[in-house]
């Protein structure tokens, strides 16, 4: 979930037309002003947002992996393997998506000579394996060819493990044993061993794919892989994304000897030294300067200045007492100052991160089953059912959930009896209430408490659905805010890019985002919400215990429903 940032200066740009998605009138006046790009290599798509110096969004674009790169045959950007535990994405799909995205942005009319800096983020935990000799290739890319052609031989592993993978249970056990237990490992790395965490994936690959592993000269996270493409050389892993590997000692911010040794001896040579998320990685690769991405720079003559900053994104949009709820492929809830992961914009601080696997894809499944595939009907079902859903509660874990580790669909009526079905409208509400009760329950277990002044910030695709936001507000009994741009990871990256240029003068990231539009209030809790959901949360916690005690299906611990 992080990136890098590079910057480059250009002379006065040639005449250009800026085409933007949302803010055309605003842009007409500012066609030659500097812009800053933020990329996000997420699970289902590659996205970019361009902002101007006043933090206005001037362009957005994306490439959907499934529909725009069908030759890779992904579903939701991934391949779920036969064991239903292994989940991977083709590395060349990500590279080709970048070729395509830059073409689309250029065709849309964004003048790259206005770009002063760029930054990016990537899905956390996923890893990329560069074949021996790839560094050489990266440094000598032929500007006349597409990146995906140039790099087709550069990866020792075609299919990269991603965050949805849960096939490394054995390696998790081994790591915890080597570290002296789960608690001790959490003390060092911020987390107990998780299957999706990169160290455990690396340990598994070393055992199951020894030849490919031998042929690897460097391992990147998705974020540092993306940065490496722009940089034309290997980008460092940053502290924040590195916190999701079960390898980084999050206090000393160096690789933990114990964890490295337990994973793969001398692994540090393959990882490179980690860096603060706000470090400068370098100037953008000459490949991009002399190819279609920035070809216009060549015509005008180019003044390079030393680049400065690199960073992770996820602009933390608030202070204390702000919880953030992402409504994307995975759902995240974060809170400041609880040890778990290094904060991208302040490497001295930590944040807690809760991750839930069954997010938007499960909502889509239930929408298809209960609302004829229509979000309008899905929303109507939420409007037509009462807060508390007549006592019905549901758990919808299509694949093995992360928090809590349970699988399957479990429905309960108002007397806590297990039932096999609900009416379509009740099913829709049971899903939403169940998802948000789970976020609240587990956030509270981490120490988070809802007090006067608590605000919920919602991001991700579902954050544009008013009825979903209303359920979120009711369950948390707190007002919900959103920002105008659902690509918040890209936006955070673009802010980081801008920050890169002013950080030298001592400006903090917070100075930069002061100008950002305030999140907008989009839902306030119903007057009865506290009473309804205060009670329901207790029942939900008890029922979750019951679900956890149920024997898991024999075929696999990760089966789909
Ligand atoms: C976080 C996690 C997911 C991915 C999605 O630990 O696994 O949120 O980062 O990109």
How do the strands of the widest beta sheet line up side by side? Answer: 15-14-13-19-20-21
Number of domains: 2
Low-confidence stretches: 1-29, 295-324, 333-339, 555-561
Helix count equals: 22
Report helical residue fraction.
Answer: 25-40%
| Radius of gyration from the alpha-carbon trace, in angstroms | 23 Å
> CATH fold name of the largest domain, please?
Nucleotidyltransferase, domain 5
CA-based shape: globular
* Known CATH architecture of the largest domain: 2-Layer Sandwich
Q: Specify the CATH class of the largest domain.
A: Alpha Beta
Secondary structure class reads alpha+beta
The N- and C-terminal alpha carbons lie at a distance of: 29 Å
For this structure, what is the CATH homologous superfamily of the largest domain?
A: ATPase, nucleotide binding domain
InterPro entries: ATPase_NBD, D-XK_euk, FGGY_C, FGGY_N
Domain Carbohydrate kinase FGGY N-terminal: 157-282
Catalytic activity: D-xylulose + ATP = D-xylulose 5-phosphate + ADP + H(+)
Domain Carbohydrate kinase FGGY C-terminal: 362-500
């Amino acid at each position: 979930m992080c990136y890098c940032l590079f910057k480059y200066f250009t002379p006065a740009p040639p005449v250009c037309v800026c085409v933007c998605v949302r803010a055309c009138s605003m842009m007409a006046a500012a066609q030659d002003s500097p812009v800053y790009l933020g990329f996000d290599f997420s699970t289902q798509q590659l996205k970019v947002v361009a902002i101007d110096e006043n933090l206005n969004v001037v362009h957005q674009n994306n490439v959907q992996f499934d529909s725009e790169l069908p030759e890779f045959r992904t579903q939701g950007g991934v391949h779920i393997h036969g064991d239903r535990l292994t989940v991977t994405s083709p590395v060349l799909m990500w590279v080709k998506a970048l070729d395509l995205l830059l073409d689309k942005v250029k065709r849309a009319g964004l003048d790259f000579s206005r770009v002063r800096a760029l930054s990016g983020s990537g899905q956390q935990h996923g890893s990329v394996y560069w074949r021996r000799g790839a560094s050489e290739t990266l440094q000598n890319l032929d500007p006349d060819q597409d990146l995906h052609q140039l790099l087709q031989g550069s990866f020792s592993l075609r299919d990269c493990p991603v965050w949805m993978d849960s096939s490394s249970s054995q390696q998790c056990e081994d790591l915890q044993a080597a570290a002296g237990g789960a608690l001790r490992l959490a003390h060092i790395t911020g987390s107990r061993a998780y299957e999706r965490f990169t160290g455990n994936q690396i340990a598994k690959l070393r055992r199951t794919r020894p030849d490919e592993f031998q042929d690897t000269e460097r391992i990147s996270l998705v974020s540092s892989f993306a940065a490496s493409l722009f940089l034309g050389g290997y980008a460092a892993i940053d502290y924040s994304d590195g916190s999701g590997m079960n390898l980084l000692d999050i206090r000393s911010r160096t690789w933990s000897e114990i964890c490295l040794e337990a994973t793969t001896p001398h692994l540090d040579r393959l990882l490179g030294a980690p860096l603060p998320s706000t470090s400068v990685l370098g100037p953008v690769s000459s490949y991009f300067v002399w190819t279609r991405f920035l070809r216009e720079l060549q015509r005008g003559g180019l003044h390079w200045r030393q680049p400065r900053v690199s960073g992770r994104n996820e602009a933390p949009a608030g202070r204390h007492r702000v919880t953030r709820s992402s409504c994307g492929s995975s759902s995240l809830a974060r809170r400041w100052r609880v040890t778990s992961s290094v904060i991208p914009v302040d490497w001295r601080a930590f944040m807690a991160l809760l991750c839930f696997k069954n997010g938007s894809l499960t909502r889509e499944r239930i929408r298809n089953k209960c609302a004829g595939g229509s979000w309008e009907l899905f929303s109507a079902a939420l409007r037509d059912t009462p807060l508390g859903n007549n006592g019905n509660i549901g758990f919808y874990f299509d694949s093995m959930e992360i928090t809590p580790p349970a699988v399957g669909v479990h429905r309960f009526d108002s007397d806590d009896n297990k039932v096999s079905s609900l009416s379509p409208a009740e099913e829709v509400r049971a899903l939403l209430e169940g998802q948000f009760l789970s976020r609240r329950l587990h956030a509270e277990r981490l120490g988070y408490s809802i007090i006067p002044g608590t605000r919920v910030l919602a991001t991700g695709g579902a954050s544009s659905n008013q009825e979903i936001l209303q359920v979120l507000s009711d369950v948390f009994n707190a007002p919900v805010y959103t920002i105008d741009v659902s690509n918040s990871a890209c936006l955070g990256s673009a802010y980081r890019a801008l920050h890169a240029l002013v950080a030298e003068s001592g400006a903090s990231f917070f100075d930069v985002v002061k100008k950002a539009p305030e999140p907008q209030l989009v839902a306030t809790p119903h007057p009865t919400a506290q009473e309804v959901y205060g009670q329901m949360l207790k029942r939900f916690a008890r029922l979750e215990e019951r679900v956890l005690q149920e024997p898991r299906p024999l075929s696999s611990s990760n089966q789909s429903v």
